[in-house]
Amino acid sequence: MSDESNVAVLLISHGSSLPYGEEVFNEICEKFKSLSKLDAEVGYMKVSHPTLKEAVSNLKECNPGLKRIIAIPVFLANGIHTNIDIPTILGLNPKEVDPRQPDGNYPKGHYLYGLEDIDFDGDLELLDAIGPNPKLLKIINNRISSGLKESKLDDDSKTGVLLVSHGSRLNYNYEFISNLFNQFKEQTEYPCDFGFMELVEPNIPSSINNLTKNNDIDRLIVVPIFIAPGVHTTRDIPTILSLIDSDESEHHHHHHHDGEGHSHSHSHSHGHGDEKVEFDGEILYPDPIGSDDILIEILWDKVKEVL
Question: What is the mean pLDDT of the chain?
């Protein structure tokens, strides 16, 4: 490894309107600093503060002799944000042409319009997103175990597992979750499948219906493959699963620091588009990845590769 005294790490998050998203990323940052012994700061792409520009300024303030910043998107999969938005905000070349604005001239009001330059004259290196790292399987298995602890059914009840991801119009997210799912499937004895919250098939109801029709399942553990709790994990997915009613979803915040999940057992009739969840067994819904120690190890492994 090279001299690390003038190296810092920028942990990049999307940003969320919900406060506990920031809480999780602050925990991730503190754990990362403790493990790596490097200066680190969270920077948000939009909505939250500090912005990426502000986070770089904070790192410079902590270490006036700073010569190198390693920026790592704390995103599970590459996509428009990691390949276009983040490099553009950081003053780097985008990794691909923006399908939303191929000429790169963003309209007034767009978050990439009129960006101020990042004030840093050292080396700024942007890494890729986390990707389908095999270590994520341990987190998934731990979430399944925590879900089972919440079950009201007997230990010999038949269990199925559904991995749920966001979905994207680009292929990156599909490639990520299908790769991760194939790894998971090879090491589990549970009947399993994956589904997407929106934008791409298979959606959550169709995946649940296929899985539960083709297998004898009494309870289903739905594992959200998301890092931080947010609107999707606390409102959108629980609504699709009928863990909350659509009219209460605006007020419901499904958030547990202790790893406990949400269990629900009755007929699930909430639709996703035209399709409804037809499974009438128990659904268990553990927490997303959060500031899990294994995630911190994955981030540190990625940084060590370029030190």
Answer: 90
